[in-house]
């Protein structure tokens, strides 16, 4: 699953669509972790979709990631600032691709 200490253990390599990106990034195979308060490890996400479908405040949008080995789309935590820390997405993801920093 996603490393909950990614912000210490990974390099902040920039931003995409206004969200922090944590490396290593080497597209299309390595896409890194996207987001900060709500963070999604794009290299783990298999596009299950349960997070996006069930988030009570609609934090996530799909983004296309052609030729990524795990899935051709990922959930971007586009509206992470709206997150209410319910932890549903963290609990429901079958591959533990999401970390929410509720502290
Ligand atoms: Fe949405 Fe809850 Fe996940 Fe926050 S913790 S992104 S509110 S499902
Ligand atoms: Fe991806 Fe897990 Fe959501 S696989 S689409 S982060 S439920």
Q: How does this model look, in words?
A:
It contains three helices and seven strands, in the order αββββαββαβ. The chain is of the alpha+beta class and 103 residues long. The protein is globular, with a radius of gyration of 12 Å. It has a single domain, classed as Alpha-Beta Plaits, CATH 3.30.70. The two termini are 19 Å apart. The structure holds iron/sulfur cluster (SF4) and FE3-S4 cluster. The site of iron/sulfur cluster has 13 residues, from α3.
In short:
With 103 residues, the protein is of the alpha+beta class. The protein contains 3 helices and 7 strands, in the order H-E-E-E-E-H-E-E-H-E. The protein has a 5-stranded antiparallel sheet, with no helix packed on it. A two-stranded antiparallel sheet has the order 5-6.
Radius of gyration: 12 Å
What is the total tally of β strands? 7
H-E order: HEEEEHEEHE
Main sheet? 5 strands, antiparallel
Tell me the strand order in the biggest sheet.
1-2-3-4-7
CATH level-1 class: Alpha Beta
Number of discrete helical segments? 3
Keywords:
single chain; two-stranded antiparallel ribbon; binds iron/sulfur cluster; Alpha-Beta Plaits; 103 residues; alpha+beta; binds FE3-S4 cluster
Per-chain topology:
Elements: H1 6-9, E1 12-16, E2 19-22, E3 33-34, E4 38-41, H2 50-54, E5 61-64, E6 73-76, H3 88-92, E7 98-100
Bound molecules: iron/sulfur cluster and FE3-S4 cluster (F3S).
């Amino acid at each position: 699953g996603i490393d909950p200490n990614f912000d210490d253990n990974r390099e902040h390599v920039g931003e995409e669509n206004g969200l922090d990106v944590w490396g290593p990034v080497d597209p299309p195979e390595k896409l890194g972790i996207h987001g900060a308060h709500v963070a999604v490890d794009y290299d783990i996400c298999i596009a299950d979709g349960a997070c996006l479908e069930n988030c009570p405040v609609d934090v996530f949008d799909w983004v296309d990631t052609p030729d990524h080995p795990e899935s051709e789309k990922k959930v971007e935590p586009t509206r992470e600032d709206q997150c209410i820390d319910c932890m549903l997405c963290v609990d429901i993801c079958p591959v533990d691709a999401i970390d929410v920093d509720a502290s």
